[in-house]
Inverse folding.
């Protein structure tokens, strides 16, 4: 990303050439992209779309949003931090290869949010994240338009990015590629035809989403009892606290850790770190059986405030990147985008 | 002059002998219980033109069109032809002449719950499977009732059929995605069979208890649980209502693949043909098996059937029906 525009190469590749590009890249990088897993969706005979390692272009699901976000490449659902054997402790070998991840503009912004939390939120960067983060390059999967009705990246200001090493557009069986990174450029096949391609970005959300002004929101919380607003009581009746909005979210980054002893060898075991989330039971459990947010409406409020207020107060930008995965995954049809627009209306009416 | 009829032939043509001496009632099959709405206009046309302008929706997901004069049967059969083409021939049912009406009525319409085209719980496309079953066993004169349901909720009441087919999901966990939240464990304990528990913070399935309902897949927030894309089925058999000994069906097969289900259903008819009591006007399959015994029935059903490796066959059938006896009724 330090190169000047003159060094950027823009080409059009046939399917065969595109696979040569991936082959060449695979010599140095593990390639991750959204793929379709037939029949593995939540409902029978429906596919799951998830991030996985790919080797050919046709494996990449370029038309639809992945159900789970690419955050799991940097921040795995479950990760063994170390193994224990009597008094000895050993860290697992992380795969030492570099990675190239194909992802959307909103998700590239999402990685910047994860950086804020894991790298910039305390005196020390979080080492497990930092280790993987240092090995990742980003390949933009172009969205010329919103992928579907759930997108609201334009409202969140995450529709555009230049923080990518390369960009691709799937165009009628061909691949348009822009390569900006010095390390990636040699991977282009020699036969690649020059093309006039720079990625385009969505300029309008399918439905307008109004993001509340964070400072007005702060005053509403501090001075006007916004947490007691009846809208949260409504979510208390609707939300079932299943946690899907959190687990599908690109920027939710809470975790917990536990130690286990192996059943057949109790003097050996491991410490695992796993995703945790504010909608799932036990997130706020404390000694003595106390819990701060037993009611589902207060969990919804907590998450919402974190996404569009608290994070902003600390880092100067909203945590939510408008990828729409929370809305797409909610079994109760609770729309986060509708929620934050409703908050904006409440602030206007005050 | 009085009406002179061969009632046996009338009934085999899917017309009923009714409580009204002059009028019959046509029984229209809808395999899988799902049809394109455009066919309803033909059903309406027949009811308005030949019947009394009403239609009865049957428990087996067919339509009965009452009030048809017996002499109109040939004309009704000709009017019915497009329906037979669309609902039977199109799904592979071998009918030689669709202008003659239904060639049999003994094997009843294969019913199905709404399945995964609509229902999130269903583990398969029940309508499509019901149609493949229809193409396998119809037309046939022996009285056999089959229904297909997408999950053990059994909304189609497969447990009241001679053969009930229940969709099973072979669920698999990706342990690397399990966060130990227990959403699946709690749900399975409270609403299903308690087949799941956490072992070292990861959900583990007890294959002896799991009935393949797929609820864990629905509840899992991280997508750790998913269905193996191969479809499996539990087959429950010999359920019945009726006057003598009503009972729910008992499990005969578990984790059977579709070819097994179809082969078993194909084998039923030979067994009936060999063992039915022809001194009775009709003997239901369940009562035949009551006389002959389960082991012989099992062997007949599985004759020549290549079981898939996952399939399990019941050692015995435990029915929990009742016999209606006056002794059981309090006398006032």
């Amino acid at each position: 990303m330090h190169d000047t525009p003159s060094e950027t190469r823009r080409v059009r590749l046939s399917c065969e050439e595109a696979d040569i590009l991936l082959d060449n890249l695979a010599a140095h990088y593990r390639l991750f992209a959204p793929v379709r897993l037939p029949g593995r969706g939540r409902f029978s005979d429906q596919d799951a779309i998830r991030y996985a390692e790919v080797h050919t272009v046709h494996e990449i699901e370029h038309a639809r949003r992945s159900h789970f976000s690419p955050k799991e490449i940097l921040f795995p659902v479950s990760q063994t931090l170390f193994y224990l054997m009597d008094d000895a402790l050993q860290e697992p070998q992380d795969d030492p290869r570099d990675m190239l991840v194909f992802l959307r503009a909103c998700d590239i912004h999402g990685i910047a949010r994860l950086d804020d939390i894991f790298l910039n939120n305390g005196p020390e960067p979080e080492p497990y994240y930092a280790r993987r983060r240092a090995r990742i390059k980003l390949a933009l999967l172009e969205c010329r338009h919103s992928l579907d009705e759930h997108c609201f990246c334009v409202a969140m200001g995450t529709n555009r990015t230049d923080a990518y090493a390369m960009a691709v557009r799937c165009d009628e069986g061909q691949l348009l590629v822009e390569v900006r990174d010095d390390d990636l450029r040699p991977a282009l096949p020699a036969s690649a035809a020059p093309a006039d391609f720079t990625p385009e970005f969505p300029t309008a959300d399918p439905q307008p989403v109004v993001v509340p002004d964070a400072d007005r929101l702060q005053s509403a919380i501090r001075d006007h009892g916004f947490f007691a607003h009846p809208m949260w009581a409504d979510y208390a009746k609707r939300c079932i606290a299943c946690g899907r909005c959190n687990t599908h979210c690109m920027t939710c980054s809470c975790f917990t850790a536990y130690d286990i002893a192996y059943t057949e060898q109790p003097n050996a075991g491991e410490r695992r770190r796993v995703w945790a989330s504010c909608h799932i039971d036990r997130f706020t459990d404390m000694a003595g059986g106390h819990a701060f947010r037993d009611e589902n409406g207060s969990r919804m409020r907590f998450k919402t405030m974190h996404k569009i207020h608290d994070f902003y107060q600390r880092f100067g930008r909203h945590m939510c990147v408008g990828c729409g995965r929370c809305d797409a995954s909610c079994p109760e049809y609770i729309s986060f985008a509708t929620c934050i627009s409703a908050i904006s209306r409440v602030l206007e009416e005050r | 002059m009085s009406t002179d009829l061969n009632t046996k032939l009338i009934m085999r043509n899917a017309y009923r002998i009714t409580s009204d001496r002059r009028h019959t009632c046509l029984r229209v099959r809808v395999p899988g219980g799902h049809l394109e709405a455009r066919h309803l206009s033909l059903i309406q046309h027949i009811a308005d033109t030949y019947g009394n302008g009403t239609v009865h929706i049957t428990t087996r997901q067919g339509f009965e069109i009452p009030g048809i004069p017996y002499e109109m049967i040939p004309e009704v059969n000709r009017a019915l032809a497009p329906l037979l083409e669309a609902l039977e021939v199109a799904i592979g049912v071998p009918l030689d002449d669709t202008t003659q009406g239904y060639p049999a009525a003994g094997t009843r319409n294969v019913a199905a719950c709404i399945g995964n085209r609509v229902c999130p719980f269903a583990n398969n496309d029940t309508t499509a499977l019901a149609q493949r079953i229809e193409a396998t066993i119809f037309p046939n004169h022996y009285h056999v009732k089959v229904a297909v349901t997408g999950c053990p909720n059994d909304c189609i009441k497969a447990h009241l059929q001679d053969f009930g087919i229940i969709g099973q999901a072979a669920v698999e966990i990706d342990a690397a995605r399990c966060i130990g939240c227990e959403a699946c464990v709690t749900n399975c304990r409270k609403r299903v069979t308690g087949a799941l528990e956490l072992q070292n913070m990861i959900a583990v399935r007890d294959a002896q208890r799991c009935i393949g309902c797929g609820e864990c897949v629905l509840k899992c927030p991280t997508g750790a649980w998913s269905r193996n894309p191969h479809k499996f089925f539990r087959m429950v058999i010999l359920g019945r209502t009726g006057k003598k000994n009503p009972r729910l069906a008992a499990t005969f097969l578990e984790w059977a693949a579709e070819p097994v289900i179809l082969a078993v259903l194909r084998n039923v008819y030979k067994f009936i043909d060999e063992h039915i009591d022809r001194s009775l006007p009709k003997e239901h399959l369940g009562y035949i098996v009551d006389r002959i015994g389960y082991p012989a029935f099992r062997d007949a059903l599985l004759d020549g059937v290549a079981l898939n490796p996952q399939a399990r066959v019941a050692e015995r059938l435990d029915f929990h029906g009742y016999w209606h006896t006056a002794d059981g009724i309090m006398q006032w």
Summary: The radius of gyration of chain A is 22 Å.
